[in-house]
Design a protein that fits this description.
Layout (H helix, E strand, L loop, with lengths): L1 H20 L18 E3 L1 E5 L13 E5 L7 E2 H7 L12 E13 L4 E10 L11 E5 L3 E6 L5 E2 L6 E2 L3 E6 L4 E12 L6 E11 L4 H30 L1
Antiparallel strand pairs: 1-5, 2-3, 3-13, 4-5, 5-12, 6-10, 6-11, 6-13, 7-8, 7-12, 9-10
Bound molecules: calcium ion (CA) (3 copies).
One calcium ion binds next to loops.
């Protein structure tokens, strides 16, 4: 009886503290099985199954972002604005136009973002002036691959690919972020490249506050024991 009440108090304390401090860190529809619901898109973006010529990394569908074959694409300055980047983050890298998707996420320090990606290109000229690239963004641009990395033959409409790869990112600072994925034409607006994205996930990691909660819970439990122990002894004697 006594032990259970101490335990319940401890658990309640942990629950209260973790609930106050932690946010629910989640990417909704991160596998694109529900189209682009919960995502915002710009440029040429589609959700494709294996008939695209590449097997999705997770279940039946994957996001496909392309750099557009015509010259009416989303220019890089507009992409910077869309992804809430600083002016010049993409244009300074030679990016001319492209496509992107984004979702707002709220994370705790220690949460881990993981996703699968595959970069495809028709631009296998080996010319660094037209070195299209794919990236993901939080508050800055993180390049995933460029045309030199796409060394595997692709059976889609695009000639070369990197193949699906996994990426993992650890958040060191809690907060609300704009998570973006993009692909850009570099140097000119021609010769298509694509970024395939699938299985975007956030894995929560216990915070130090959880440990504090457990320790405080243990403290309360101990205090309760000290207070009620004599009464229990008395009850036992009766
Ligand atoms: Ca999927
Ligand atoms: Ca283009
Ligand atoms: Ca290009």
């Amino acid at each position: 009886m006594l032990k259970w009440s101490s335990l319940a108090l401890g658990i309640a304390t942990v629950f209260l503290i973790t609930n106050q401090e932690k946010v629910q860190a989640i990417v909704i529809n991160g596998s694109f099985e529900d189209g682009f619901n919960w995502w915002t898109t710009t440029g040429q973006t589609t959700v494709e199954d294996s008939s695209f010529g590449v097997e999705p990394a997770d279940i039946n569908y994957q996001a496909v972002l392309e750099t557009l074959q015509d010259e009416t694409g989303i220019n890089s300055s507009a992409l910077e604005e869309f992804l809430e980047l600083s002016s010049g983050d993409l244009t300074s890298l030679g990016a001319v136009e492209g496509s992107a998707i984004k979702q707002t996420i709220t994370v705790n320090a220690g949460d881990v973002l993981t996703f699968s990606w595959n970069f495809l290109t028709d631009d296998d000229s080996g010319d660094q002036n037209y070195n299209d690239f794919a990236f993901f963004s939080l508050s800055n641009v993180n390049q995933l691959a460029n045309t030199y990395d796409a060394t595997i033959l692709s059976f889609s409409d695009l000639a070369q690919q990197t193949g699906y790869q996994s990426y993992s990112y650890n958040f060191t600072t809690a907060g609300t972020y704009t998570l973006g994925f993009g692909v850009v034409d570099v140097g000119d607006t021609t010769v298509n490249s694509a970024l395939l994205v699938d299985n975007v996930k956030l894995t929560p990691v216990p915070e130090p506050t959880t440990m504090l909660g457990i320790l405080m819970g243990m403290g309360f439990g101990y205090a309760a024991k000290m207070r009620f122990s004599p009464q229990q002894k008395k009850a036992k004697l009766k």
